[in-house]
Design brief:
The chain is 42% helix and 19% strand. Strand 2 and strand 3 form a beta hairpin. The protein starts with 5 loop residues before the first strand and ends in a 22-residue tail after the last helix.
Length: 340
């Protein structure tokens, strides 16, 4: 019987301060504190994010231990997000973990935030079987990756401009909806009529697995500018539905074509946009026709959280990786890039 590993995860890449404890792939606690300070600015203010992390990190860490019923000396390892993200925010987590490791002697490992999102699919059963295709969709990323085995990635497609989550936020802002825009647009779209207007699907004819969202965003802007204030209000849900239809169709069609091309039957979705209702419905339904299985993390693991970081860290520690005290914050690191 192998020893079960108890891992602490710390995530501070943007505006969520999160700490989690996992034991192998069982989540014992996953504490997330979202920062409401940014709402009035319609986006995340980096300086305010760093300050909020500094204030919250120790109490959140303590709460994660208490909730899990685990004491500090029972930890086998610590995983911390070291990029990509906001440099000041990342440094709060990285420096906290270095201090904790220095005081306790517990080994730690730097984790790529995007790799964390991939591993959100391994926090609950069933999970995808290797090799599988992963669609990574968030505010900062839209990527298609073939995952051959643990920690081995091959990027086959990405956005050429905006990430899909960013397009959601920008369209929401344009329509006067509150930040973050993704969930708001999704909610309104569910009761709208998507056939009010047909917006373009980015790179629809392209043979590549790349995405593009700038054209769609511009098309929404042009359409909205032609409407009177009354028309805009009357058709708000329809505009959201039409935008969502185009945005999600692009994701679903490219993902299924990639699965077919690479002969993969398991498809995992990761990142904040994995919580989107239309993406969940459309991809699940259309994948069945292609005899593919689709995996979505539970909603609580779609957005930024430390449980996914702990799970990726567990895999890294098991594979013999660990970081030393020169670990830094890497705001624009790519998936699969070596972490020093």
């Amino acid at each position: 019987m192998t020893h079960m590993m108890t891992i602490l995860g710390i995530e501070t890449s943007c505006d969520e301060t999160s700490a989690a404890i996992i034991q192998d792939d069982k989540v014992l606690s996953n504490i997330i504190s979202s920062q409401s300070v940014h709402l009035q600015f319609g986006g995340v203010v980096p300086e305010l994010a760093s300050r909020a992390h500094l204030k919250k990190i120790i109490p959140i860490y303590q709460e994660a231990l208490d909730t899990a019923g685990v004491s500090q000396h029972q930890l086998d390892g610590i995983a911390v997000t070291c990029g990509p993200g906001l440099v000041g925010a990342l440094l709060v987590g990285v420096n906290f973990v270095k201090g904790l490791s220095l005081a306790t002697g517990i080994p730690f490992v730097g984790v790529n935030h995007i790799e964390g999102h991939v591993y959100s699919n391994f926090l609950e059963a069933p999970h995808p079987r290797f090799p599988f295709l992963c669609l990574i969709v968030s505010g900062g990323h839209t990527q298609l990756v073939v995952i051959k085995e643990h920690l081995t990635y091959r990027l086959i497609g990405k956005t050429r401009d905006d990430a899909v989550g960013e397009a959601y936020d920008k369209v929401a802002k344009l329509l006067g909806l509150p930040y973050p825009g993704g969930p708001e647009v999704d909610k309104l779209a569910q009761r709208g009529n998507p056939s009010l207007v047909k917006f373009p699907i980015g790179l629809e004819k392209s043979k590549t697995f790349d995405f593009s969202y700038s054209g769609l965003k511009t098309a929404v802007l042009n359409f909205v500018q032609q409407l009177s204030e009354e028309e805009r209000k009357a058709h708000l849900a329809d505009i959201c539905a039409a935008f969502q239809q185009a945005a999600i169709t692009a994701l679903v069609s490219k993902t299924l074509r990639a699965a077919k091309t690479y002969q993969l039957t398991d498809i995992a979705v990761a990142g904040g946009v994995a919580a989107n209702s239309l993406l969940r419905k459309m991809l699940t339904e259309e994948a069945q026709n292609q005899h593919c299985r689709v995996f979505f993390p539970s909603i609580q693991y779609c957005t930024d959280n430390a449980a996914m970081i702990a799970r990726a860290g567990l895999e890294r520690l098991k594979a013999g990786y660990s970081s030393n005290f020169s670990l830094n914050a890497y705001p624009s690191i790519q998936l699969g890039e070596e972490i020093q």
